[in-house]
Amino acid sequence: MDLGAGRYAPSPTGDLHVGNLRTAVLAWLFARSTGRRFLLRIEDLDASRVRPGMAARQLADLTALGMTFDGIPVVQSQRDEAYQAALAAIADRTYECYCTRREIAEAASAPHGVQHYPGTCRNLSDAERVERRRTRSPALRLRADGARQTVHDLLHGDVSGTVEDFVVRRNDGVAAYNLAVVVDDAASGVDQVVRGDDLLPAAINQAYLASVLGAAPPTYAHVPLAVNADGRRLAKRDGAVTVPDLAAVGVDAMAVLALIAKSLGLPAPRRLADLLSSFDPDALPREPWVFPGNRTR
Ligand SMILES: [Zn+2]
Question: Which of 16, 65, 182, 201 registers the highest number of CB atoms within 10 A of its CB?
Answer without folding.
Answer: 182
